[in-house]
Amino acid sequence: MSSEVFSYRSLVHALSGAVGSVTAMTVFFPLDTARLRLQVDENRKAKSTPAILAEIVKEEGLLAPYRGWFPVICSLCCSNFVYFYCFHSLKASWLKGNQSAASTDLIIGIAAGVVNVLVTTPLWVVNTRLKLQGSKFRNADIRPTNYSGILDAFVQIIRDEGVGALWNGTFPSLLLVLNPAIQFMIYEGLKRQLRRGVPRELSAAEVFIIGAVAKAVATTVTYPLQTIQSILRFGQFNESTCESKLLSSLRIIKCLLVNRARKYGMLGLFKGLEAKLLQTVLTAALMFLLYEKISSCTFRVMGLSNNHYKKH
């Protein structure tokens, strides 16, 4: 089993996934900025994504849509490296060369997601705050922050809120491991259907389309939890609306969901979904395209191309 876990094959998958995700996120980063503003700034009226971006540029400057790019890219690179490495190493250990199935992909995706969440949540908490720092919010209850960088954000959060604050939003994040798990299950399943047992490399168009479909389904299903995750990571939700600070994470999540639904209706749980779908679908599609091309090229150079396709 150790040979599958610690292998060049898993390392190639991890590096390809990390490079692909960083490149794709950089291209579509402004769309993620629009999505995040709609999720955490409750008083901002939901508008089309171009309108939100135009508003941000007008009020905060031309570079505002790329605010917080570096910490997000660092977090994304680490997160996708861990996820791709765990997913493919666990898959190799489980299958031992046999054909995979949808249920197997889902279980392995969940396991990889849990490891990823526990390891990288502090990075995502910091990058959420840095990305929103200096923003002009419609909600007057949001307190301004003053972090000079990633390390300073870590120091201030630990000093002012305790070490546990670095794992804010961990519980919804653990529930949200279903997002990449569903995404990979659909993606791998569609790949098997397109190949129909023939070990061939998919075209760029095929990879882009199935990557987009897989992410669109996963995002729509889990979006309300993603909104709560962003609010918790930002660290400025109003706990007084809940009965006690000692409530479990599950009660807090339920409270935030119910309060948001009561205040804005059920559609309030999906505020920012248009921006999220636009950003995440395009990003995931480009990421999978780059990942497949980088990994297949690397495996071809290593003389492992045929074996690579057969195992998937």
From TrEMBL:
GO cellular component term of the entry, any: peroxisomal membrane
Keywords from the UniProt entry: Membrane, Repeat, Transmembrane, Transmembrane helix, Transport
InterPro entries: MCP (IPR002067), MCP_dom_sf (IPR023395), MCP_transmembrane (IPR018108), Mito/Peroxisomal_Carrier (IPR052217)
Bilayer disposition of the protein: Multi-pass membrane protein
Location relative to the cell: Membrane
The name this protein goes by in its record: Solute carrier family 25 member 17
Transmembrane domains' residue ranges: 12-31, 68-86, 106-126
Organism: Seriola lalandi dorsalis
Family: Belongs to the mitochondrial carrier (TC 2.A.29) family.
Pfam family, one: Mito_carr
